[in-house]
Amino acid sequence: MANRLSLATLPTTLEASARLGAAIGAPGLLTKRDDLAGPVYGGNKVRKLEYLLGDALQRGCDTVVTFGAAGSNHALATAICAKQVGLACHAVLTDQVQTPWVTNTLRWHALLGTHLLPAKGFVETQAEATRLRAGHPSGPNRLYEVAWGGSSPLGSLGFVDAGAELAGQLARAGLNGPVRVYLPCGTMGSVAGLLVGLRLARVPATIVSVKVVPQNVVDAAAVLRLAAAIQELLPTGSARSAGELADHLEFRPEFAGDGYALPTPECLEAAALARELEGFKLDTTYSGKALACLVADARSGRLAGHIPIFWQTWNSRPYPAGLDKVDVTRLPAAFQKFFLQEPL
Hints:
Elements: E1 14-16, H1 18-24, E2 30-32, H2 45-58, E3 63-69, H3 73-84, E4 88-94, H4 102-112, E5 115-119, H5 122-134, E6 143-145, H6 153-172, E7 179-185, H7 189-200, E8 205-211, H8 220-231, H9 242-247, E9 249-252, H10 265-278, H11 287-300, E10 307-311
Parallel strand pairs: 2-10, 3-4, 3-6, 4-5, 7-8, 7-10, 8-9
Antiparallel strand pairs: 1-2
């Protein structure tokens, strides 16, 4: 039995987004507020970390290592939650384009004391993890590896739970019609877990997985493979067939744009609409591109007869006070370039 911690503030609310819905032709639009999933730091990573950090503690680990780009929300969420439960954290980070959020993310790491390590690509991140494990002072078995995005089968159980949570909210609201749930797809764990969770709950839902990363390994087949691996962790007899899962997954690569963290015009418009009409802050790496897909489908009439749900995966909790005063000079030289441009 997985050792699940209580890190998230659950359930997150399912709210009507009437003004935005009216503006785009989706009058029944709902938003799942996972941006408030954690009391200190929200977003979709906290659900996964309940299982992953619980497993780390159960195994007697004292430190975690994880991975991401320089502005990775996942790496920051891992560092924040690890510190809350008494675990040290290494984050092996690759380069990315500057965005308004990278600088503050790195400042928060400096405040937390995260051990940041630069890497040039995926292969080098794995080599760094191997080096860290071999030299870990208390022994290699006490360093716990948290996968990219927390999207291992175990971490993805957090979104199986999220599927059950959403199913209950829809039932209590008396919403029985077909559902289309839009969320970004990077490391695929949120999408795959939610797909499994909603099928277990027998909700007539299509998961619209909006690709936001350039890697060719992220596609519908990979999502379904991860979903199958997640199901292997569930009680015998609860699994759904590969065909059934495939029938309820819609993979949308056309909103990714020219690269990771590079905004598209559609993404910028969607983020502006969310801000002006509903007060949501979206990023242009993940959540803005997912909403752009929903907006396009609404305008094309594709949402007719469906209940559209936008899953807000980005953190909207405030930055800690005094973040601009944090000493970042001790961060690795590879990250200093991000401080040449002040955060917005």
